[in-house]
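## Example pair
The file below holds two records. Each record gives the amino-acid sequence first, followed by its structure token line.
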Amino acid sequence: MPGVSESAWFPPDEPEAPRFLVSPLLAAAGLPHLFTTRHFPGVTLPRDPGSPFDAAALRVLAELGVTGGDPAFLRQVHGADVLVAERHGLLGRADVVTTDRPQLPLAVFTADCLPIVLYDPDRGRVALAHAGWRGTAESAARAAARALIAAGGSPERLVCAIGPSIGPCCYEVDGPVIERFDAAFPDRGRAWVTSTGPGKWMLDLWRANADQLAMDGVDPARIDNPRLCTGCRADLFFSYRRGRGQGRLVAVASLPAPISSPRPPAAGSR
């Protein structure tokens, strides 16, 4: 999968144990965003039904350029439904959220599943998707891309990032999972798995989601992925498989405020 090296995601001013990571492709496109690590302050616990960030975390986000206050977020259910954010706070049950409102942050939560951010720099829209194996089987990433395309976006102009998540090195699945992928993707599903023995496979969710985005016309060269595995990197990330309920990671993005044009001088003024 095309993408820059993982080191490019580490902000140069962050300490050795960074609080967050940033996609170089999204940053170059002008989208304020970040992917938290386990060291980001003020992320609430998974069982907390409220905002993923406390007041201290919101101040840090604003300092880092992700402005707008509390994010809009979802009750994630491992599907592919899309909700449009018009306000802050909990929107409802879904796994994809999109908006065209500047400075309305969007957030998805993960702890092995894939956080996927898609940005349309031409139309000024952003979408975030949460994709575990069920969401991948239901094409959550494609649902996010199609939401932007349906709003007038050109797929080849979209900029995407797949954040830290469980990699094919650590994600072992069994027969029922493979059956779901065979049913959903009879021509492609087997390309995303490697057999490791009777009834066991390693599933590559990174490749599966990048391939699905490409199915809808997204340029693979515009899909960023540091290939940082939450299962391997206990020093940086929480992992549901490694330690259920210990914490969560948050991907957050906020469309920048529009640049206002200078007012023309009043008639007769000098």
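Second record, same layout:
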Amino acid sequence: MMVMPKPYSLWNVFSKKGFKATFNIIVGLVGDSLKEYRSASWDDLRSLVAAGNEIASHGMFHLPLVSSMKSIVRKFLRPLLNQPVRTLSVFKYHLSINPAYIVKNVGISHELESSKRIIEENILNYKCVSFVYPSGSCDKKMEILAKNSGYLSARSTKVGYNDLIDLDPYTLKANVWDCTTRVKEANKWVDIACRRRAWLIECLHLVSNSNREKYPHFTHVDDLEKHLNYLANRNVWVATQKDVIESFLKDARA
């Protein structure tokens, strides 16, 4: 979800470099106020699409889409044991802004299909083809549901790089920024991806010049600008999830 004190600030950072981005939207929170921040409105999102960006679905209410005990252990119990403070902080934040994170009783198909439909209803002549699993939780059942719901790809939070030779579009990996990520570290991700000739997806959550709520996935806007400068100097292709997938599919059919 694009969340900043001024919603267009984030896009301005990208547009100065001529870059396009994918904005992952929790549909049920569009236009809401989250603590001191306002999430993007439908007018904001329509303007972003008109400028060449992508709007991807991040579900209706950010409900974890897990269907097996193995997934639950991987996504919740293991992080809780390894990083208890950080995991509890994320959990507490979600509960504070969205009780539906815990108690909303909706089906998995609602998260996938309804969110896609509502995006397409609110953005004229737009087709939503990218999904981002809420909390990164996915398994084979979720991957099949994402494909059957009409998405061309779906991203998890599994850390790593995407090998375009052997790519599964429904289990895309990403490197996620948080409040401990340094610019040099993110620049190194780019270097590794270039050496491997792999697709690097970078995921950011709250981008701002302050973090009074102590949100764990915070990135300072100055750090993002420095990293984008590095990308521009490296002359790498920066594109949306949709554009990369469509290019991959085109090459695969050739």
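Notes on the second record: The first helix runs from residue 8 to 15. The CA atoms of residues 20 and 53 lie 5 Å apart.
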